[in-house]
Amino acid sequence: MTTRFKSDALFAEALNYIPGGVNSPVRAFRAVGGQPFFVHRAQGAHLWDVDGHELIDYVCTWGPAILGHAHRRIIEAIQQTALKGTSFGIPNPLEVTMAKLICSAAPSVKKVRLCNSGTEATMSAIRLARGFTKRDKIIKFAGCYHGHVDSLLVKAGSGALTLGYPDSAGIPPAFTQHTLVLPFNDPDAVRAAFAAHPDQIAGIILEPVPGNSGLWLPRPGYLECLRELTSEYGALLVFDEVMTGFRLAWGGAQERFGITPDLSCFGKIIGGGLPVGAFGGRADIMDCLAPLGPVYQAGTLSGNPLAMAAGITALDELQHSNAYQALETRGQQLETGLVEAARTTGTEVQFNRCGSMFCTYFASQPVRNLEEAMRSDRDKFARFFHGMLEHGVYLAPSQFEAGFLSSAHEASDIEKTIRAAREVFSKI
Ligand code: HOZ
Question: Is 416 a catalytic residue?
Fold first, then answer.
């Protein structure tokens, strides 16, 4: 049993000053038991905790570290940019470069507004969808998570679901009365919602590949159906690509699945590991934002030069390397190995994967929505998580989170992970 004296001491101290000892709930390991470790440093696909243990990292800071940690070019870009100042509160040229990059990667995005987090992006996109359509209702899907936005913290995934609070306290019912929650991958539910409220739905927001209750893939034709229904009823299709953007393809899930949303939200990768968010889409919709239009949105640190420099460098590296091919190859290698390890040990596993995002459910039936995810064996997942950690493999500490690969993961990392999984599967 690995001991983590320094981590344990830090956590005990943190508990005195930070609620739950963490600054984001899922980090507290409540879903899997035990205590979090504290990170000393990270490089490539590996983390070192403060007690000196090395771990293969499949969380990748929940997505941003797609090129691995402490990427040399990104660090240099941050250093060089910081020498010129860290925040101006007035336009800087890097914002224009970043905006052009996002628009060129996702052709559905004609104009984009930069902000500071994925939560800000989805919150602002929803406000904009409502302001543009002059309608109030929003459809979201059970188990999808769009940050901690009041009106979207209904049947939410990620930490909210992990801790059993999918509907947060502190949100007046009036704030969510216009949120319609439907099951994912069920076109009839969406048809029925539009039939019941034909002129009232501003839009649908979704993670096109939901990655906050584990990972589900959209059924063939489902995203197309959402596109058709929103167009038919004059509502907007809003893709939350905070996790999938620049990950599932250069152009995100919308490129991978060939769908053109009206608005898209980004974050994570476009900050190269620094805090960032963005939302963009059709020019006629985006021009409703202040100062051009009546929908207000603002931010002192929006377009922050350090985040822009880090993000631009990350995107440049992604665009001009074979990163996506490498990610696909590693994802396939991991899938093949884990599925085989499960088969040979007689472990019932559903391994869901889309490119470099994945999730292992301990379930006998396919998992394509929240209801099916809830049927998986979460106690077994917790034992799997800790078993893997003992073998030096760090997976997301909750069944209701996706795993992430980086282009820095090497074949040897995947092989070690599969060997560990075989051993852990045989014991849990
Ligand atoms: N909600 C994030 C993952 N889906 C977790 C953020 C964090 O704890 O850093």
Answer: no
Does 268 participate in catalysis according to the annotation? yes
Domain ranges of the chain: 5-70+322-425, 72-319
Residue 412 alpha carbon to ligand 1 centre in Å: 27
24-69 pLDDT, tens digit per residue, is: 999 999 999 999 999 999 999 999 999 999 999 999 999 999 999 9
* Residue 158, ligand 1, Cβ within 6 A: yes
Q: May I ask the CATH architecture of the domain 5-70+322-425? A: Alpha-Beta Complex (3.90)
* Residue of minimum CA distance from atom 1 in ligand 1: 158
Whether 122 contacts 242, CB under 8 Å: yes
Question: Is residue 233 among the annotated active site residues?
Answer: no
State the SS3 of 17-81. Answer: HCHHHCCCHHHHCCCCCCCCCCEEEEEECEEEECCCCEEEECCHHHCCCCCCECCHHHHHHHHHH
Which residue owns the Cα nearest ligand 1 atom 8? 24
Among candidate residues 268, 324, 361, 394, the one labeled active-site is 268
Looking at the whole model, is its pTM more than 0.90? yes
Whether the Cβ atoms of residue 405 and residue 334 lie closer than 8 Å to each other? yes
pLDDT digit string (tens) for 179-226? Answer: 999 999 999 999 999 999 999 999 999 999 999 999 999 999 999 999
